[in-house]
Amino acid sequence: MLIFTCPCCGERADETELSPGGEAHIERQSVESSDEAFEGYLFIRENPRGVHFERWRHAYGCGKWFNAARCTVTLEVFGTYPAQTMRPPQDLLDHISQRRPGWTWRDLA
């Protein structure tokens, strides 16, 4: 079971209290975008075996969105941070690098 600490209210919550929101840090497209760009936004996503950055909503708590870094293999949660952050905090990236030497994910490594 996944257990996250909500960075907005500080409460620890398991995945039954949260709503998943898909991959974090993707460029959102509008209806004015080209068909190819909109298709990429809707359907082309990372699905790594290992470290992944996701959006979650504290549905049965404060109701706010946040991002989380976790391992899709072991379900280890590396940390959470506010959804308004454009890039994961450097201390979180350093923590992941200590736990998973050599990991990469897009341009965040």
TrEMBL record:
Regions that span the bilayer: none
UniProt GO MF annotations: sarcosine oxidase activity
UniProt GO BP: tetrahydrofolate metabolic process
Cross-referenced InterPro entries: SoxD (IPR006279), SoxD_sf (IPR038561)
Top-rank lineage group of the source organism: Bacteria
Pfam families to which the protein is assigned, alphabetical: SoxD
Annotated protein name in UniProt: Sarcosine oxidase subunit delta
Species whose genome carries this gene: Histidinibacterium aquaticum
Lineage, uppermost ranks: Bacteria, Pseudomonadati, Pseudomonadota, Alphaproteobacteria, Rhodobacterales
